[in-house]
Design goal:
- With 238 residues, the chain is mainly alpha-helical.
- The protein contains nine helices and five strands; from the N terminus they run αααααααββββααβ.
- The chain has a three-stranded antiparallel beta sheet with strand order 4-3-5. The protein has a two-stranded antiparallel sheet with strand order 1-2.
Length: 238
């Protein structure tokens, strides 16, 4: 889908996003506006019943271009292409982008000090990771993998282990399939914003790499952080 002409009709909106965009207030505002616009495009496309398309690209040496795969065997197509119901795909992307937009708006509204928390830096980055994965190949790299593992839901490695045992080993859901979903989101109060429930410690080296900065202080000094007080959190009623 990276070369799909449908996205070319909306210059700039469907480009790959970088975590560092969240550090500049003006760019962050444009990013959130674009996320909102993208979700509306998928919603309107489903309501109006528009057709969709996806390219299939096979590369061969130039010397063999005239006689290699001039016709595509049916078995090759069946093996290479996965058909997803148009309605299921569009509604999935719509809800995914709408949810990501909601999280980013809540962090933006809460103020800079909220952004500066390691857990919220991780949350913002993984939200953009998921948004990019809707239209582009997933971002690779061990620093991203470490962040994603900690942000997705975990289950007991051995179902027979006690769920209340904090030392019981866990594994991230669907990690081997490159499918990631953020774990529970909770609603913080005073100020109000959505944040990760997980209590993992996020590696500073991973965060600085993902945000294209040298030190954590460089991230925190990239914008004016407000001094909004942090208080207890409440479960998200939704």
């Amino acid at each position: 889908t990276e070369k799909n002409m449908t996205y070319s009709l909306n210059p700039g909106i469907f480009c790959r996003r970088q975590a560092k965009e969240l550090l500049q207030k003006e760019i962050e505002a444009v990013l959130i506006k674009d996320m909102d616009a993208m979700s509306k495009i998928f919603y309107e496309g489903e309501v109006e019943g528009c057709d969709g398309c996806a390219p299939l690209e096979i590369r061969v040496p130039f010397t063999d271009a005239m006689n290699s795969l001039s016709t595509l065997p049916k078995k090759l197509i069946l093996h290479s292409v996965i058909a997803i119901n148009r309605r299921v795909w569009r509604i999935f992307v719509y809800y995914c982008l709408a949810a990501i937009c909601l999280v980013l708006k809540s962090l933006q509204k809460a103020g800079g000090r909220v952004h500066s928390l390691d857990s919220n830096l991780a949350l913002g980055a993984v939200c953009l990771y998921m948004a990019n994965a809707c239209f582009h190949r997933p971002t690779k790299g061990f620093k991203w993998e470490d962040l994603i593992k900690k942000c997705c839901q975990h289950v007991l490695g051995d179902p027979s282990d006690d769920e209340d045992d904090e030392d019981a080993p866990t594994v991230p859901i669907l990690y081997d399939n490159d499918t990631y979903f953020i774990c529970d989101i909770v609603l913080n109060s005073n100020p109000t914003f959505l944040r990760l429930l997980v209590q993992h410690t996020f590696d500073a080296e991973s965060l600085t790499h993902i945000y294209h900065k040298t030190l954590m202080d460089d991230i925190r000094s990239s914008r004016t952080w407000s001094a909004a007080p942090l208080s207890r959190h409440l479960p998200n009623p939704e």
